[in-house]
Design goal:
- Chain A: InterPro entries: P-loop_NTPase, Small_GTP-bd, Small_GTPase, Small_GTPase_Rho.
- Chain A: GO terms for molecular function: GTP binding; GTPase activity.
- Chain A: Keywords: GTP-binding, Nucleotide-binding.
- Chain A: This is Ras-like GTP-binding protein RhoL.
- The complex is a heterodimer of chains A (about 190) and B (about 500).
- Chain A is an alpha/beta fold and about 190 residues long.
- Helix content of chain A is about 40%, strand content about 25%.
- Chain A contains 5 helices and 6 strands.
- In chain A, a hairpin with a 2-residue loop joins strand 2 and strand 3.
- Chain B has about 500 residues and is α+β, with helices and mostly antiparallel strands.
- Chain B has a domain of about 190 residues: Rho GTPase activation protein (Phosphatidylinositol 3-kinase, Chain A, Orthogonal Bundle).
- In chain B, a hairpin with a 6-residue loop joins strand 5 and strand 6.
- Chain B is elongated, with a radius of gyration of 25 Å.
- Classes of the chains: A alpha/beta (about 190), B alpha+beta (about 500).
- Chains A and B meet through helix 2 and helix 3 of A and helix 6, helix 11 and helix 12 of B.
Chain lengths: ~190, ~500
């Protein structure tokens, strides 16, 4: 059954240059442009199947620049799942998650938002380097921020990108189910 | 001047400057508060200088946000007036501090009205008008405000000229900073696009003296000790109306007619005339420092078009003494030894050949027996200068006067102005050196050309030729197209040098 009528929407956030647009492009089957310039705001849609059902995932890709906070506000309220991205070989972008992105999301979405932590560009990870962020650190952060999941991905490997968006769908469905039961509970009264 | 003292940063240690270095910067206060003493707060200038020196080869500067907690820490220290050791932080963090400063300015650096004024510049059709409008706006600002703007845009300008190293193209850079500069546009993607277009214009043409103002460019060059070498190339096209259409008229009649028609779009008389190229414009070179400018201007009436100045730039960042050679310097040097970007030359040649060929054909046609009925105007076509002696004389005078160096003039009248020119312009501009005659006096020290910027748009309109002499040298060349019958094309290359270059 095609469930295209109810697309799952998600927003990619994270510092500039971590590869948000690359992930989105890779998911919808396009090559990331060689010298892609900064994104201001983009919107993508791609399909994925979870548990035998086809889902459309619409992806908001707002600017990663901290300057454009006002533009991101509307995407926060519209989406179901937020993907927080950082680059594994750029510790600053990892630090930004806790110190910038999480507060921003919390501010506009409240604490009950569904967040998935995404580590990008894992192919560039260099375990010897201090600036590299390890899987353990990522998982730890994911627990701390109460994320719905921690994913590692690289655009070099399409499967890893696909898994991220499958995770998006499962999280969104879980969230919808919760709301439904809550709604039922209330209506029963 | 306080600013200048600061320029020599580290080596100055007298008390007054010491106290100025601990000036507090209020993030979030209006700009007027920070420049209430009439000069920019020293720490702000220092951080910009540091970025201009060290950051120009940093990849993706102003795009990556840097470390958020370091950014906060620096902001806090600057607010308290405590010194910050920039070396301890990475460039991205420092750039973030600058962006944060801009972002926290209520209404942004230009203010609401200023943003509107600048955005409205985009609706002007011709680059020359745009320059003028921007110039008008910038000069209306307070001096310290102007200085801040020129420091910022100077830095960005230097960055895009090193974009082969730092990967920041104009587009990427202007998108990355548009949000902090144009506050009114940050919420809407469409507006951001617009803001980034005006940012591109401002950044790319920072070196155009008629836009940012000579003083501001000099200020940037001196303060950051960046050597900037600008070649502005102007293309003038004087078009004489085709003899078949023009009734025989006297010379006075000709000028009168033009005066009447000024501003009215006339159908073009040449078959391949580009629609947007309206030949009816008054050539009116404006010269800031020239007392004769006005009189010249009033008499130079001829249909003319002018192209955008092509600016080839050679900002040579960081020729800085008293500083250990850094990796950046080496990078910089290695890049400067590379030959300037080429690739256009062959295309340039082929286009030029084609153009000449066409001109020749047309000139044959014009001079051929079919055109027996010669008007007073047409008769003289083919003899350079005779048909409009007054005008040509003026023209020559103008050139001679403003050059101060060598002038080569060999313009002849030729085929009507032709669309080619609009797309050829970019070709011509790509390597302007090839246009310079060999006799050009070379007084310039070796230039560190990192990149040529090309203005591909052709501008038709009102001309503005800012030939205010630069401090070190100025060359002006006039190149020519040969065998032209109906119009005259001249190129002016104006060179400006700012700041310290190797001598």
């Amino acid at each position: 059954m095609v469930n295209a009528s109810k697309p799952v929407s998600c927003t990619l956030v994270g510092d500039g240059m971590v590869g948000k647009t690359s992930i989105a492009l890779s998911f919808i089957g396009k090559q990331a442009e060689e010298n892609y310039v900064a994104t201001v705001f983009e919107n993508y849609a791609g399909g994925t199947s979870v548990a035998g059902e086809q889902y459309t995932v619409s992806i908001y890709d707002p600017a990663g620049k901290h300057d454009y906070a006002s533009m991101r506000v509307c995407t926060y309220t519209d989406c179901e799942v937020i993907l927080m991205c950082y680059n594994v070989s750029d510790r600053d972008s990892f630090d930004s998650i806790a110190s910038f992105w999480l507060p921003e999301v919390r501010k506009f979405r409240g604490t009950k938002s569904t967040v998935i932590l995404v580590a990008t560009q894992t192919d560039t990870r260099n375990p010897d380097s201090d600036s590299s962020v390890s899987t353990e650190e990522g998982e730890k952060l994911a627990r701390e921020i109460n994320a719905g999941g921690y994913m590692e991905t690289t655009t070099q490997n399409y499967d890893s990108v696909k898994t991220v968006f499958e995770k998006v769908v499962t999280c969104a469905l879980k969230c919808r189910k919760k709301k439904k039961t809550l709604f039922k509970k209330i209506s029963r009264r | 001047m306080a600013m200048l003292r600061n320029v020599f940063g580290g080596c100055v240690s007298d008390r007054s400057s010491e106290s100025m270095r601990h000036q507090k910067i209020k993030f979030g206060a209006p700009l007027s508060h920070n420049i209430k003493n009439g000069y920019l707060p020293v720490p702000l200038v220092e951080i910009l200088i540091y970025i201009a020196h060290e950051g120009m080869n940093t990849a993706d500067l102003f795009r990556r946000p840097g470390n958020p907690s370091d950014t906060r820490h620096i902001v806090k220290r600057m607010t308290e007036g405590k010194p910050v050791i920039y070396q301890n932080y990475n460039m991205y963090t420092l750039a973030s501090v600058v962006k944060k400063f801009l972002l926290r300015l209520p209404d942004g650096i230009f203010g609401q009205n200023g943003e509107e004024t600048l955005l409205s510049v985009l609706s002007l059709g011709h680059k020359m008008e745009q320059y003028e409008a921007v110039h008008e706006y910038i000069t209306s600002l307070q001096q310290a405000h102007q200085q801040l703007v020129s420091l910022l845009f100077g830095i960005w300008f230097t960055m895009i000229n090193n974009c082969d190293i730092n990967f920041m193209t104009t587009e990427a850079l202007s998108r990355s900073v548009a949000g902090s500069v144009f506050h009114s546009c940050a919420a809407d993607p469409g507006k951001v696009e617009k803001a980034s277009r005006i940012m591109q214009l401002l950044i790319e043409n920072f070196g155009v003296a008629s836009m940012f103002g000579q003083q501001n460019i000099e200020y940037f060059a001196d303060t950051t000790r960046t050597g900037i070498h600008i070649r502005e190339k102007f293309r003038y096209e004087f078009q004489y109306l085709s003899e078949e259409i023009l009734p025989p008229i006297s010379e006075e009649g000709f000028y009168e007619m033009h005066a009447q028609r000024e501003g009215v779009h006339e159908p073009s008389h040449t078959p391949e005339h580009s629609p947007e190229m309206d030949p009816k414009y008054l050539l009116c070179p404006r010269r800031d420092d020239d007392e004769d400018g006005d009189s010249t201007c009033s008499r130079l009436m001829a249909a003319s078009t002018i192209s955008a100045p092509e600016v080839s730039l050679a900002p040579s960042p960081g020729n800085i003494g008293k500083r250990p050679k850094s990796l950046e310097d080496n990078l910089n040097e290695s890049s400067s030894t590379e030959p300037p970007p080429k690739g256009s030359l062959s295309r340039f040649n082929s286009v030029k050949r084609k153009q000449l060929e066409r001109l020749r054909q047309r000139s044959d046609w014009f001079l051929g027996p079919a055109n027996g009925q010669k008007s007073s105007n047409g008769q003289k076509s083919g003899h350079s200068g005779t048909s409009f002696p007054q005008y040509t004389r003026e023209h020559e005078r103008l050139v001679a006067k403003s050059s101060g160096n060598s002038v080569t003039k060999a313009s002849s009248e030729g085929a009507a102005l032709d669309v080619m020119s609009s797309d050829v312009d970019s070709v011509f501009s790509e390597d302007s050196r090839s246009e310079s005659p060999a006799s050009e006096p070379i007084r310039t020290p070796p230039i560190r050309v990192t990149r040529d910027i090309i203005h591909s748009d052709t501008i038709v309109d009102t001309p503005m030729m800012d030939m205010s002499a630069s401090r070190e040298s100025q060359d002006l060349n006039m190149d020519e197209d040969e065998e032209m019958v109906d119009s005259e094309v001249c190129y002016f290359v104006v060179e400006h040098k700012y700041g310290h270059t190797e001598s």
